[in-house]
Amino acid sequence: MAGADGDDSLYPIAVLIDELRNEDVQLRLNSIKKLSTIALALGVERTRTELLPFLTDTIYDEDEVLLALAEQLGNFTMLVGGPEYVHCLLPPLESLATVEETVVRDKAVESLRKISQEHSPVDLEVHFEPLVKRLASGDWFTSRTSACGLFSVCYPRVSSTVKAEIRQHFRTLCSDDTPMVRRAAASKLGEFAKVLELDYVKTDIIPLFTALASDEQDSVRLLAVEACVSIATLLPQEDLETLVMPTLRQAAEDKSWRVRYMVADKFSELQKAVGPEITKNDLVPAFQNLLKDCEAEVRAAAANKVKEFCENLPEDSREQIIMTHILPCVKELVSDTNQHVKSALASVIMGLSTILGKDNTIEHLLPLFLTQLKDECPEVRLNIISNLDCVNEVIGIRQLSQSLLPAIVELAEDAKWRVRLAIIEYMPLLAGQLGVEFFDEKLNTLCMAWLIDHVYAIREAATSNLTKLVEKFGAEWAQNTIVPKVLGMANDPNYLHRMTTLFCINALSEACGQDITTKQMLPVVLKMSNDQVANVRFNVAKSLQKIGPVLDSNALQTEVKPVLEKLASDSDMDVKYFAQEAISVLALA
Amino acid sequence: MLSPIQVLCSDITTLSLEPEPFASYTEADIISTVEFNHTGELLATGDKGGRVVIFQREPESKNDPFSQGEYNVYSTFQSHEPEFDYLKSLEIEEKINKIRWLPQQNAAHFLLSTNDKTIKLWKVSERDKRPEGYNLKDEEGRIKDVSTVTSLQVPVLKPMDLMVEVSPRRVFANAHTYHINSISVNSDYETYMSADDLRINLWHLDITDRSFNIVDIKPANMEDLTEVITASEFHPHHCNLFVYSSSKGTLRLCDMREAALCDKHSKLFEEPEDPSARSFFSEIISSVSDVKFSHSGRYLLTRDYLTAKVWDLNMESKPLETYQVHDYLRSKLCSLYENDCIFDKFECAWNGSDSVIMTGAYNNFFRMFDRNTKRDVTLEASRESSKPRAVLKPRRVCAAGGKRRKDDISVDSLDFTKKILHTAWHPTENIIAIAATNNLYIFQDKLNSEMH
Q1: Rounded to whole angstroms, how far apart are CA atoms A113 and A124?
Q2: Confidence of residue A144 (pLDDT cuts 50, 70, 90)
Q3: What does the pLDDT read at residue B11?
Q4: What is the pLDDT of residue B65?
Q5: A125 or A389: which leads in pLDDT
Q6: Beta bridge partners of B170
Q7: pLDDT tens digits for A185-210?
Q8: No. of H helices and E strands in chain A?
């Protein structure tokens, strides 16, 4: 044996192994995460003969331990002796592929897919494929659902007889009794179709696809819509009409709104997969119907796709299709009864202006934008405002500014602080597009008013908004319009407003530069060190620390240092603390 | 088929109490729900103390034909604890309102249990191996001398006595403002719903932090409230259909395909009220206390205070069949109102082939109705009559003023504190489970009936 001198190196490993069965989940988890260390110490032989059999039987453990185990085993090939022995990893992963917890099962399948690539073609048929078969014909549906994800990785690398078996197994699972398995099969249908020979796609996959797409369970049918995308990309254009379109048409008119929702949600992908001709003849009317669907969820999903759908229309007939078929539906959606539908539309409708060009935008889209800007729901207005840049490029924002202003003012004064917060975030963008003149005239007062909002989050956002505005309009603008107002608040009777002055100075000093900071801001800060509220005083210390790097050393030594030293002997503990911190950070000691 | 019912496992109490017949029990021991799993191999009961007891059917033994198929305790665990809602200053009882088994997905069994507010998913699994062998200590936990550790030892799994483990898998909380009265697992195996007095929510079994509201009957102003949801269930095969019953005696069938919020029902099952029978109690006794789809999915069974009704999904105007459970109580409604019994919620059950229905009554009586032959029977679940293998004698209640035969019981001597609210029928065989306060009785068809 290794003898006594081996103990030191053995000890940590021994602890890890013992903790594999510790009472404490966290320790077990730690050990499992260091499984490679254990395996390395045991050597490939003992890993195969002792460690793996033990791990195969540990499926009683907590989910998080099993999840970590499933993940580790996917990277274990070298630790069991390389590709030659990779099949030793199959038994533990097989048992993990049957547990009830979906995340663990999925991870086990992912690891199985990974190590399948490390199997030689012979091993794949001798070890891997039988495992897939066992799972596929397992008693419990958990094992059968796991099997669905493994067909596509072994199919390309096995002999034609085994291929035929695999296809048969897949067919069986597609008509399984339990909806869980049919769902797993339906979700892997597209992936499996990709590895199949084209002839088999037509003879095998299409019937399965048709069957799943008319399954009695909604939850299975809606997954067939996803498969439709990948199958349509595989088939030559001339076959699409007969093999895919009947099913797709049926799905778009399905009795269940969840299936129609799925069609709406995948509409852009479907559109790309079936090509321009079918889009013109079939998808346009289908899309119109989805936009007019009786279920709001479906309309919202379709409304989200309006821009993308229009963009991907064939160029020769794009404008005509939009103007005659899509736009009328969009006009109706603008006054939809459901606010989610309206706000989904508002988030994309501005994008149409680039597609339709200046004249159409002014004539047809502008009235819609204006209506949405006056919508009762703030989210709709916000979505319009957040996408102003699209229109700006086409017709310039001036066209909108008359309606824009009341909308912004109303949002800025909304009773819900989250709405106010959202509009503040768009201020720099608006300022950039509206120009400094318009801004000074109409919006500046709003920005200043937010500084004394009664909600801290708004005051904080207003502060950082000022920084962004200064970055945009320059230091000179700041000196003339913002700084005087900010500094004026230093004398406010409310200490929260006085603190806002300090926060603004923190944010603005860098953007304003040394000159303004030293001449205008610093005196105010220093004066506030005599404030009677301790919170203001320690924020003075924090502010000095913050603006210190912007100041020249002369000002630091002659003006900042004495004040900080005075604060460092303040009666308040927090003031002392922050003053001392500032002194040491600014190296004034 | 209503052949004589024989006691299979009589008198299984959910607790190991003293065996004397009048053993005292506490409120917490009262059984509040009974449910077979999908194969009938397991039977779960919940009680007012928040406990769940699972019974397992013993495998049939060839040597002793009489021991076949008895149900014995498999596992017992505490599902819910009493809680306190500090925001509303309300106590939340631990009482288990409903238990529903999930379709079996692997070697373990899963069930949902709910109290008034919180639904929990439990895993019931068996373990027959345990790891042995430590590096740094021996099996008793004594630390070994480090210098003696010269090689690494991987633990080995050794067989051990079978152990049943119950572990909580998910907790679905904070979705119900009112008291949960029903839970039902969807035939898609991935969702279930929970219903309270005014709302029904749809959950994904894997997701605990959100649910979708599919029915909301709460009026804008609570003063306009006239009706509450009393029970709800998914269709056994069509994942999109579910039914809910109301305190006004109506049933609404909803189709989830039509819209995300099922405010508009697809079908409304309602029997027009007979104006001549109208009384102060009409509305109370017409409140539906339970609704169950038949196994075929074609029929609905409902229970109200005095009757059990079978409805055809294709006929909304009136029930297909109406069975009087205890019509003799009609003259006693006044006193039943005074002692609150009129608000008792009796449940009902179908047999495996949908040909017989069963529901409970007072005095530890339960009733079975054969839908084909129109025969019916009243049986009693009591310690005295339920000796193992004994055949239950049919009982009769004679209405006040009626002619009384030998062994008949007069309405006035019925014990209204002994009520059978919860019953369950094995999914395929003629085995029934009856909860009578703190006792569980399991009966089955008389054995050897195939010899005739």
Answers
A1: 12
A2: very high
A3: 39
A4: 56
A5: A125
A6: B121
A7: 999 999 999 999 999 999 999 999 99
A8: 42, 0
| ipTM confidence score | 0.83
CA distances from B66 to A23, A54, A375, B2, B418 (A): 44, 42, 76, 21, 30
Which residue in chain A has the smallest CA separation from B106?
Answer: A140
* Residues A513-545 as b or e (16 or more Cβ within 10 Å = b): eeebbbebbbebbbebbebeeebbbbbbbbbbb
DSSP classification of residue A323: I
Instruction: Kindly report, residue by residue over A68-97, the tens digit of the pLDDT.
Output: 999 999 999 999 999 999 999 999 999 999
The alpha carbon of residue B235 is apart from the nearest alpha carbon of chain A, in Å, by 12
Q: Are A564 and A588 in contact (CB under 8 A)?
A: yes
Whether chain B has a CB inside 8 Å of the CB on A180: the answer is yes
Calculate the CA B439 to chain-centre distance.
14
Mean pLDDT of A414-434: 86
Name the DSSP class of A313: S
Residues of A with CB below 8 A from B38's CB? none
B258/A contact by beta carbon, under 8 A: yes
Residue B82's contacts (CB-CB under 8 Å, 6 or more residues apart) are: B50, B91, B92, B93, B94
> For an interface test with A, which of B152, B167, B207 has the most A Cβ atoms less than 10 Å from its Cβ?
B152
pLDDT tens digits for range B258-273: 998 988 899 999 998 8
Residue type, B232: S
Residue of B nearest to A99 (CA): B106
Does B260 contact A at CB distance below 8 Å? yes
- With H, G, I as helix, E, B as strand and everything else as coil, classify residue B77: strand
Would you call A7 and B147 a contact, using CB atoms and an 8 Å cutoff? yes
Q: What is the DSSP letter of B172?
A: E
Q: Where are the alpha helices (DSSP H) in B332-385?
A: 333-338
Contact B188 A46 (CB under 8 A): no
Task: Please state the rounded mean pLDDT for residues A539-557.
Answer: 90
Q: Do A257 and B260 touch (CB under 8 A)?
A: yes
A221 neighbors A259 (Cβ within 8 angstroms)? yes
Contacts of B110 in chain A (CB under 8 A): 100
Q: Residue B3 pLDDT more than 80?
A: no
Choose among A285, A197, A187: nearest CA to A229. Answer: A187
Assess contact for B215 and B244: CB atoms under 8 A.
yes
A295 contacts chain B (CB < 8 A): yes
Mean pLDDT of chain B: 87
Pair A3, B142: CB distance under 8 Å: no
**CA trace torsion B443, B448, B449, B451 (10° rounding):** 180
- pTM beyond 0.90: no
CA dihedral A55, A59, A65, A68 (to 10 degrees): 60
Would you say B129 and B158 are in contact if contact means Cβ atoms under 8 Å apart?
Answer: yes
% of chain A residues with pLDDT over 90: 65
The C-alpha atoms of residue A537 and residue A558 are separated, in whole angstroms, by: 19
Mind telling me how many Å the CA of A199 is from chain B's nearest CA? 33
Is residue B449 pLDDT above 80, yes or no?
Answer: no
Size of interface A-B (CB pairs under 8 A): 120
Closest Cα in chain B to A14? B135
Helix boundaries (H) for B390-442: none
Distance from CA of A216 to the nearest CA of B (A): 7
3-state class of A247 per DSSP?
helix
Give the model confidence (pLDDT) of B347-401 as tens digits: 999 999 999 999 999 999 999 999 999 999 999 888 777 677 777 888 888 876 6
**pLDDT reported for residue B10:** 40
Mind listing the pLDDT tens digit for each residue in B221-239?
999 999 999 999 999 999 9
Helix (H, G, I), strand (E, B) or coil at B84: strand
A7 in contact with chain B, both atoms CB, cutoff 8 A:
yes
Predicted local distance difference test score (pLDDT) of residue B152: 85
